[in-house]
Fold this protein.
Amino acid sequence: MFTRSNRRTLAAAVVCAGALALGTPAMAGAVPAHQASSQTADEGIAAKAADKQGQKSQGRPDHAGQPGKPDHAGQPGPPDHAKGNGKGPGHGGGTDAPGQTQCQFTPEGGAVEGAWERDSLAGVAPEDLRIGNIAAGGGHHSDADYPDPFPSDPEYRDHVAQEYSSVTHENYLKWEFVQPEQGVYDFEQADAVVAFAEVNGMDLRGHALSWHSQNPDWLEEGDFSEAELREILEDHVRTVVSRYAGCIDQWDVANEIFQDDEAASIRDSENIWIRELGPEILDDIFTWAHEEDPDALLFYNDYNVDGLNAKADRYYDLISEQLERGVPVHGFGAQTHLSMQYGFDDSYQENLQRFDDLGIHTAVTEIDVRGEVDENDMMSPEDRAGAAERYATVLQACLDVSLCNSFTIWGTLDAQSWVPNTFPGEGDATLHEGDYERKPTYCILQRTLVEHEEGASAWKDDASFEECRGILEEAGV
Ligand code: XIL
């Protein structure tokens, strides 16, 4: 069981990750010097931060606490405790002492009360599986009639910290936010999410270091030579990864690099990096990121890879080749944006498993299951039941695949989700109604976790799960 009470307490050792020593251009929102180099006055909070460092290493195969292993990405590492199968990407440089980097963001406030209780998702998840959600803000929220939820809504933040053990910046780490002008980095919003995760003992998924979307105009419309573009990319990757070294556990290093055509060809017109620098640039991006944080797990991430299909095949081939060449790639993320309007492949688990068999991690990085909605923004009862089933199937697949280490839901409340905005007429894709009441989808995930960890009788008999038992009964799920 993954609760705060069973975390190790360690003495706080807060060291600067070196992010600010890179001589990078002006960084708005940079961490104050005192924060980067000294312990906070509040020892309780400092202990929690250190505690998180201890907790974070658990269940992360093959890097924490095993300094000095040879850096053979992709070769099975020595047996360890990772979900009991002893596999792992074996990454972490031989000389760069993996597990040593400490996050420079020391907690300043208190942790949210009532987090990861027994009647929460993170509270019943296995220790080696993080359940995540997003720090909502930026992107489509900027055009909405409400302020960004993460920075402005304490109830939202409390909810995320109470229910989840991992958080992903929905938009704040994308290029258009982080480098809005050439050479001018703005980390203000991203830093706040990292600090929030640190104080609440949550893991972080970094999203994303390279993508074809949400790039700033100066980049997309600029007239740069190949050499200049390469320099721009390298500077960005090194600046961002080093800043969050020891804080961000997994990075989506390359997002959505294959297209949806039959051959799933590489995105060589939309993706500026692949178009201008060739697909070989991917090796470099992973390598730069790894050099800046040897502890971070480095992922590919994409949608429509929810089974054994052409796009997933392309990733399988590319990753296999990169591992052969010793490129530090450690994970494959299936975004898992599903719609009840389309079918669902029954080979979801088989797909994850083949990446697992390569010795790399997998993750469900952005799941939501949407459908056509009525005037109350609800799917039909049949679609709701079907959506709950899909959520559960994907979670079960992740539970059953050894190195599937996180399951992240892309949104909390439907009113704020990207779905209605992006897919007109569709919605009802998240786990909660407005006001945070639980949907059957939430409860089926809780049941799946409890039954996996403790068996069917714990689910049936434990008074902690009464609310969800009632919701599922009423929904007939
Ligand atoms: C979405 C955000 O949720 C929106 O706020 C934004 O307007 C567009 O991007 N795949 C990804 C995510 O990798 O970054 C996308 O997030 C959803 C699809």
